[in-house]
């Protein structure tokens, strides 16, 4: 009996033979590029989330420090842009609470965006691994 295709002697040879036969179409390249862009975007968003979380922690620390202040008549400088404006302890506390609320909303929006992109990446991974198998590495480097 003659084979039209090379006769593989092992599963490894069959996989190697199949791997060499996979063509990358324009659509596949678009998916790979989309995966790379979204992976990069997630990294940027996570860095932005960390910065905002540090800012939030600073605001929380400032709120605690103001609560510990004994002097109710104390005027507290609050930076708005490039200038400092003195406010009462109560006004400053309200401004800090508002700033904290805004930051928490921004963080939640960024985290929602990350989750959305992660769903897209998971879908792309399924599609790309289905076609390319172990010939494509879509896992992030842990270095």
Automatic annotation (TrEMBL):
InterPro entries: PFD_beta-like, PFDN4, Prefoldin. One of its GO terms (cellular component) is cytoplasm. It comes from the Eukaryota. Pfam families: Prefoldin_2. Keywords: Chaperone, Coiled coil. The keyword Coiled coil applies. Residues 42-127 form a coiled coil. One of its GO terms (biological process) is protein folding. The keyword Coiled coil applies. CDD domains: Prefoldin_4. GO terms for molecular function: unfolded protein binding. Binds specifically to cytosolic chaperonin (c-CPN) and transfers target proteins to it. Binds to nascent polypeptide chain and promotes folding in an environment in which there are many competing pathways for nonnative proteins. Heterohexamer of two PFD-alpha type and four PFD-beta type subunits. Interacts with URI1; the interaction is phosphorylation-dependent and occurs in a growth-dependent manner. Belongs to the prefoldin subunit beta family. This is Prefoldin subunit 4. It comes from Equus asinus (Donkey). The gene is PFDN4.
């Amino acid at each position: 009996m003659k084979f039209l295709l090379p006769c593989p002697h092992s599963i490894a040879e069959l996989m190697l033979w199949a791997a060499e036969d996979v063509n990358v179409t324009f659509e596949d390249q678009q998916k790979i590029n989309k995966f790379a862009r979204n992976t990069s975007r997630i990294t940027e968003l996570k860095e932005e989330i960390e910065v905002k979380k540090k800012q939030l922690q600073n605001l929380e620390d400032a709120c605690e420090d103001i609560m510990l202040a004994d002097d109710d008549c104390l005027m507290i400088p609050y930076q708005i842009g490039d200038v400092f404006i003195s406010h009462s302890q109560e006004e400053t506390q309200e401004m800090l609470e508002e700033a904290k609320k805004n930051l928490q909303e921004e963080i939640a929006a960024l985290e929602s965006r990350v989750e959305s992109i992660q769903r897209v990446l998971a879908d792309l991974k399924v599609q790309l691994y289905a076609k390319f198998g172990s010939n494509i590495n879509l896992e992030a480097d842990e270095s």
